[in-house]
Write a structure and sequence with these properties.
heterodimer; A: mainly beta; 11 strands; 0% helix; B: 111 residues; mainly beta; five-stranded antiparallel sheet
Chain lengths: 116, 111
Amino acid sequence: GAVVSQHPSRVICKSGTSVKIECRSLDFQATTMFWYRQFPKQSLMLMATSNEGSKATYEQGVEKDKFLINHASLTLSTLTVTSAHPEDSSFYICSASEGARSGGYTFGSGTRLTVV
Amino acid sequence: DQQVKQNSPSLSVQEGRISILNCDYTNSMFDYFLWYKKYPAEGPTFLISISSIKDKNEDGRFTVFLNKSAKHLSLHIVPSQPGDSAVYFCAALQRAQKLVFGQGTRLTINP
């Protein structure tokens, strides 16, 4: 089946630094990738939708200058958390879609970001 | 505005019995519903889905029921096994666009 690789799985960074998270579709071309954030004991909140070669579409309340998304190819999307603060500490998950096919959403294994 | 709601944060079931996880939604334009299973520090994995034109879909031990008039769906797991212990999310799609997730229900299967 479809596999999405997310890296790193865990990262600790200092306040003020930037962190890049990669999301790769390993055996399919992902026309669309999604980035989610999950707070403890809460739902997965969609942050943004990225389409290859175009600007990401951010959900309301998500700062696009803080969470930079790049979808440069059909197999790679990156999320960069810029000038990280402790409140950015969270679990970030990417998802890749093989197209407009229900159930065709594959999730990465997630990245636990801790900002100290 | 929570369009997909899972009102039970947790559920505990005896091994071998039936687990029933519930989900309600408010947006009548949703046309596809999915259930995902998630372990701590991992991404969700797809379990089962149902189209809005159906009222039941079954796959092995997992059955999803959809009641459109009540805007309610449920996931039945029978018989429940210890490996089923995880957080279960229901999610909804509108015209194959972005997934909208519920808050999740933590299922614990007791031996």
